[in-house]
Write a structure and sequence with these properties.
5% strand; 71% helix; flagellum; mainly alpha; Flagellin; f41 fragment of flagellin, N-terminal domain; 6 helices; 2 domains; 4 strands
Length: 286
Amino acid sequence: MSDVTLSSATRSNLLSLQRTTDLISQTQDRLSTGRKVNSAIDDALSFFKSRALGDRASDLATIKNNIVEGINVVETAVKSLESMEDTLKQMKAIAESAKAESSASERRALSTQFNTMMAQLNHMASDAEYNGVNLLIGTQQKLKVVFSEESDARVLTVGGQLLNNTAAAGTVGLGIHYGVCLGSFANVTTSDGSTGVNRTLTQIDGALDKVRSAAREFGTNAALMEIRKEFTENIVNTLETGASQLVNADMNAESANMLSLQTRQQLGTISLSIAQQSEQAVLRLF
């Protein structure tokens, strides 16, 4: 088979068309994927920098989600404490009404209401669970929230508190003595009865102080976690933006480039045709 001999003009036009075709293929890939760097072959430095930024963004996004879960645990406790505070206020009002009530039947009715509400305090404390964590049923319960992927030192530990009223002696938890509450209202006109109700009122005030103190402490922790959540979210957004800028294509620029390359391809084809026609015309002269 004889070799095909190309003139320098034809060879130049063919090489130019080949380069244009390659650029069109590259631009089509960028337009279809939205990325100018799809692998390390395209740009190793940008590719691996983008991957590193994306990996850190993913790690921090996981941490942010855990912070959100921590906020939910604490907010569940705070909402329960708010309900417990409202219940304690109602219990205090009932105790004060019983102290001023002269009818034994009314005092018994008030005592029943009081003890029903007191039982609800325990239900509110035991129901304050989120994802297996309850900060109101004892100090053995702890919430640990990690703020950074780099060091365990950046950990917030929220300790649980015993804020139910299950102890009969009233020495722990909310500290409202069951025996006093059950026996005092019916004998409120006697010296012992009045003393019992007064003691109950004192215990309720103490329970209110504990509930409010715990709500403040948990609220402070929730506010701190909210700040860290927003901070981490901002860092994640910055990292993701940086990773995208390294590898993502400018779609407007690529679209304009595609139009330019298609025009160049058309002109190259015309130029090649003209060159071939000129060569044939010269050959016909001989």
